[in-house]
Write a structure and sequence with these properties.
Blueprint (H helix, E strand, L loop, with lengths): L7 H28 L13 E2 L16 E2 L1 H4 L4 H16 L3 H5 L4 H6 L2 H8 L3 E12 L5 E10 L13 E13 L2 E4 L9 E4 L1
Length: 197
């Protein structure tokens, strides 16, 4: 008994499927290598690493110390980012507008003049800040993923989340302005990630 000859379409089906699968697997492996994070030490990589303040400048208090994950600490500008954030949080906690202005852009200062700024932070105490990641943005800008705890009177909390303690997690844009790294204005999009603490 003879078997009928297979059609040309069936003869090409198996080789085409093999080639498509091979290209897909190869592309996946290549993408994994291109986008993988740098090797990190074994253990809990989410634990913050606190870097001591240099001898120059004022020492931050315990609430103002900014921790960093190993991933963030490995960035070449990590120390500069940490110092900017420590000054930022310290200025908020001590209500020193002039100090706050030294680490934010002129655009941000224009958006928050003294009266508006003081009204927004009158009972605020920020603490437990941790930088999770620092990424390069466009040009010389940076995008800094930071989490922190904010305590305030309920009436001073955001109207859409009236809580006395809020754990924030957001991306702060940083740019070079007048030869210094500064925190830029945050985009007016949806509110940053937040939860009750």
């Amino acid at each position: 008994m003879t078997t009928p000859a297979s059609s040309p379409r069936q003869r090409w089906l198996v080789p085409v499927v093999v080639v498509v699968l091979s290209v897909t697997v190869g592309g996946g492996l290549l993408a994994r290598e291109l986008y993988r994070r740098p090797d990190q030490p074994a253990g809990d990589t989410s634990a913050p690493v606190t870097v001591p303040q240099s001898a120059t400048g004022s020492q931050p208090t315990g609430a103002d110390i900014v921790g960093m994950t190993p991933d963030a600490q490995s960035h070449p500008r990590a120390d500069e980012v940490r110092k900017v954030l420590e000054t930022y949080f310290s200025a908020i906690n001590t209500q020193q507008y002039s100090r706050w202005m030294t680490v934010v852009t002129t655009e941000r200062v224009a958006q928050q003049p003294l009266g508006t700024w003081k009204d927004g932070i009158k009972t605020t105490k920020d603490s437990d800040a941790v930088v999770y990641r620092i990424e390069r943005g466009s040009g010389t800008s940076l995008r800094v993923l930071v989490g922190f705890r904010s305590r305030q009177a309920v009436e001073d909390a955001p109207a859409w989340f009236p809580e006395p303690c809020i754990q924030w997690r957001l991306v702060l844009p940083m740019v070079i302005e007048k030869s210094a790294l500064k925190i830029a204005a945050v985009d007016n999009g949806p509110p940053p990630e937040h939860q009750k603490c």
